TrEMBL record:
It comes from Carnobacterium viridans. This is DUF2785 domain-containing protein. It comes from the Bacteria.
Length: 248
């Protein structure tokens, strides 16, 4: 019944649909998860099928340990799909709130804390999985961070927390193959576009580069990190004009 309603884009019984969609948000069937449920969330959120109370309740549920942080710390587990797509839908809700203004400053701060915790503690960094489609945990959480940073209630005091999480991901020996570095560069550029580039941000980038350059020989892991850093800086360069943004 759920699949039929979603294929027909019949969103009239929104309360029942939300319950069933949440139960299946991390469904391992990529057609159900990506094509039906996620697209239904897009339609229901952006086209005002949900009441303000439903939007708030959905936001709170997705932030719980049963969704955004469900099973975090495991590798190669199906739990990644639930975490990753919870992050995507949270991004939709925060984007919608830029016009609705239902959320409070404390809620934006809380979702930021959760997103940064997610990036630092996510162990399953797979992008596309052959049998089950997109896991894309790092990319989806980076998208969520971008929505948070561009929300009116995001404050400059939250700046360094975001930088810590982003640099942690870049400074990883994991081989990102599915646009993750590009996606991590987007919230980084959003920070600079909104508040300029801080001295702390510059120091962290310089520390990454100097650590690599100081080595006389490079291991395979070092080579991966160098590639991540190079691609991250290149992607940011084309998203911001640093001359227009003074240091904090």
């Amino acid at each position: 019944m759920l699949i039929k309603k979603l294929e027909e884009k019949n969103y009239s019984d929104s309360e029942w649909l939300l319950k069933e969609m949440l139960l299946n948000i991390g469904n391992v069937n990529s057609y159900i998860r990506d094509k039906l449920i996620y697209n239904a969330f897009i339609g229901m959120i952006t086209k005002d099928y949900l009441t303000n109370d439903q939007l708030k309740n959905l936001f709170n549920q997705l932030l719980s340990n049963q969704y955004l942080l469900y099973g975090i710390g495991f590798k190669n587990s199906d739990s990644v799909y639930k975490r990753s797509f919870s992050a995507l839908v949270l991004g939709l809700l925060i984007n919608k709130d830029k016009e609705q203004q239902l959320l409070e400053k404390s809620q934006i701060s809380f979702v930021l804390d959760r997103a940064c915790f997610y990036l630092v503690n996510e162990q399953d960094r797979r992008g596309f999985t052959e049998e089950k489609g997109w896991a894309h945990s790092i990319a989806h959480c980076a998208d969520l961070l971008d929505e948070i940073i561009t929300h009116p209630l995001f404050e400059q005091s939250m700046y360094e927390k975001v930088v810590e999480a982003l640099i942690f991901c870049v400074n990883s020996p994991f081989v990102y193959e599915d646009d993750e570095i590009e996606r991590l560069s987007t919230p980084s550029a959003a920070l600079i576009n909104r508040y300029g580039i801080s001295q702390e941000f510059i120091d962290k980038i310089e520390s990454l580069i100097n650590h690599v350059l100081s080595k006389k020989t490079y291991s395979h892991l070092d080579t991966r990190i160098i590639s991540n850093i190079r691609n991250y800086l290149r992607a940011m360069y084309f998203k911001v004009d640093l001359e227009e943004h003074k240091q904090l």
